[in-house]
Amino acid sequence: MTDPSRPGDARRTVVERACDAVADAVRFFTRLPAPQAWGAAEAARRNDGVAIAAPAAGALVGLGAAAALTASLAIGLPALPAASFAAAAAPLLSGALHLDGLADVADGFGGGKTREAKLAIMRDSRLGSYGGVALALALLIRASLVAALVERTGADGAALGLIAAAALARPLAFLPATVLPPARPDGLGRSANPRKGAVVVGAALGVAAAILLGGAAAGLAAAALACGAAAAVSAIAHRQIGGQTGDVCGAAAEAAEIAALAGLVAAAAFA
Question: Where are the transmembrane segments (predicted)?
């Protein structure tokens, strides 16, 4: 269906559709501004566009983290403090979207005894002890991996690695939604439902970005671990609540990004 408010919508060029998709992905995954004139007119196309353009939104977040890392190293900070600033920059740009999902999943799966209780805890905005531990570990591991990447690949290699990991992880946020049914009749887990083909294309673009920025061996290692981490989150969610929610999708992306960084660090050890 053509949106009457956008003349010629059905005849929009490939470039215009790509701009729409990137703008929608930036709005979905980040707090960064996007031109109001850009964006899909239809919900179905918007969902597919977000999945396909997810690596671009991730790359923008990764670029911000890379800038924080580079600036910190340039003023003489050691690798670990510089990596900590990079780890802080990413959630500032994304609105801590995936960290929030990770914390809610940890609280729900760790504190609930029944499926209903787990879902209720996940919907509660308060942070519990399991969620607090998950957040602390995620940030600690991320900073440690980035510091290791600085030591093994240098500042430029670590900056590129941050961009690659972020681009690779974003489309994997939709992996749970492609393999699991919604656990609730409402919420993001039901409304954010791109087609599997769009998710595959987005994931393939993420892998291509990782290979381009990190090299073939490192990019493939990062992709393998990232996909494995997202798949593991999906499997745990299936066992715990029999489906997926927006929080599960966020946790999958966060786990994938950390795993991607681990893959880059491991690959650098054998380079």
Answer: 50-75, 127-150, 157-179, 199-232
